[in-house]
Hints:
Number of helices: 0
Radius of gyration: 15 Å
Order of helices and strands: EEEEEEE
Largest sheet: 7 strands, antiparallel
Helix content: under 10%
Shape: globular
Strand order of the largest sheet: 1-2-3-4-5-6-7
Number of domains: 1
Number of strands: 7
Distance between the termini: 31 Å
Structural class: mainly beta
Amino acid sequence: MAGMEAADIAFRADGTGWTYWSNAAGGFEILRFVWRQASRSALTLRVREYAGGTWSLDRGTVTHQLRSQHADDRKIALGYEISAGQKVYGDPATVLQFDKKVILGSIGSRFALDRELAADEHDPAYSS
């Protein structure tokens, strides 16, 4: 990822999840998916929805404005490994390494565990 972009991937215990890509210019994209473990070292993401738009920061709070949202139907098969590693700046971390980029051009192949998700947590642009 370039220094002006960030990407995350989240897996919920209920079998749903999302990718989140954003850039410093205020754009974001989310892919919402269902996931399943295919084997001890492989999983499948079935992308169900795309959401994209702009984000802004106001008094320390990030808000998202959807500009585009539509159904999607993509299957992404990934090999993976979870191991001890380091965050970008050298701090120790649990690392998830995929065998390829999740989404070519925006979502990479290596992620450091940041935190556990809350049971009721959704992606940053989710609205009920």
